[in-house]
Amino acid sequence: MTASDFSRLIAAAADTIAAHxxxxxxxxxxxxxxxxxxxxxxxxxxxxxxxxxxxxxxxxDALKAVGTKLVMTVGGASGPLFGTLxxxxxxxxxxxxxxxxxxxxxxxAIEAVAARGKSQPGQKTMLDVLQPVYxxxxxGKTAGEIADAADKAAEATVPxxxxxxxxxxxxxxxxxxxxxxxxxxxxxxxxxxxxIEGH
Amino acid sequence: xxxxxxxIVSHSPLVAEGTADMVRQMVGDEVPLAWCGGNGHxxxxxxxxxxxxxxxxxxSEAGVAILVDLGGAETNSEMAVEMxxxxxxxxxxxxxAPIVEGAVMAATExxxxxxxxxxxxxxxxxxxx
Lengths: 199, 129
Description:
Structural class of chain A: mainly alpha
GO biological process, one term (chain B): phosphoenolpyruvate-dependent sugar phosphotransferase system
Shape of chain A: globular
Largest interface: A-B, 21 and 18 residues
Domain PTS EIIA type-4 (chain B): 3-129
Radius of gyration of chain A: 16 Å
Distance between the termini of chain B: 32 Å
Number of domains of chain B: 1
CATH architecture of chain A: Alpha Horseshoe
Oligomer: heterodimer
Number of helices of chain A: 10
Catalytic activity (chain B): dihydroxyacetone + phosphoenolpyruvate = dihydroxyacetone phosphate + pyruvate
Keywords (chain B): Kinase, Transferase
Largest sheet of chain B: 4 strands, parallel
Distance between the termini of chain A: 11 Å
CATH architecture of chain B: 3-Layer(aba) Sandwich
Number of strands of chain A: 0
Number of helices of chain B: 5
CATH superfamily of chain A: DhaL domain
Order of helices and strands of chain A: HHHHHHHHHH
CATH class of chain B: Alpha Beta
Helix content of chain B: 40-55%
Order of helices and strands of chain B: EHEHEHEHH
Subunit structure (chain B): Homodimer. The dihydroxyacetone kinase complex is composed of a homodimer of DhaM, a homodimer of DhaK and the subunit DhaL.
Number of domains of chain A: 1
Strand content of chain B: 5-15%
Number of strands of chain B: 4
């Protein structure tokens, strides 16, 4: 991956978060504390502002730096959770990963996010999107199919009862709403998948 | 100072500062104490950077006990401890306890010269699970 490829990924991620910030906030207002869109936008704009510095690094270091920036700037629990996802990918990926290496690294990164959030798939969180994305990766699906799997997985959080995070305080009342973190994860997966496919 | 330090992390700076006031009323200056609250941008939330700063401020060789309010404060505190890294991270514990009662009880225990383990155990006794 070249520096310009990585810059394109950052722009795609920051663009989709900015474009959907209000939607993410509305989802979070329904069953959370209503700051997810703004928090994620702040974090990804902070990453965008340092695109050149990040893109100049080897891929593992670039991903770690993006993760650290998210941890420091998002301001909610999403900061450590999304930050851990990127930091773990940076830790696990080689400098020039192939599909197999990406699949292995993605699985490790999911484990790191699960540990950070003391959560597991099925609890109405971002993990409910990450896990099917991993499975699609492992099954050799195309970028478009992986993005579709992510969207479908985010939709599938609607009937779930939240067991982690602020939404869990609502118990049964969390049923019927999409998880904001699952939605933002699906948005990021689609943005990255389309940026890579369009290359 | 050799007493265990106490760090208070709330989503609200008002809650964090108020809790710190209550701790000070109990233990005066005998316990290293720091608080942080808010997302660093004027809103409710917690900031890893601010938590790391509070840990530095309340640092004691005897260790630091962190009291948190809601989930994000816990997740961000654990992240802050990890980013501080070894060897200090071994001496920092995020307590599972109600923030106000936990901070006051933990600080009172610390002011008597208790170990980090004892301070944390006192806070944990307040937790139903």
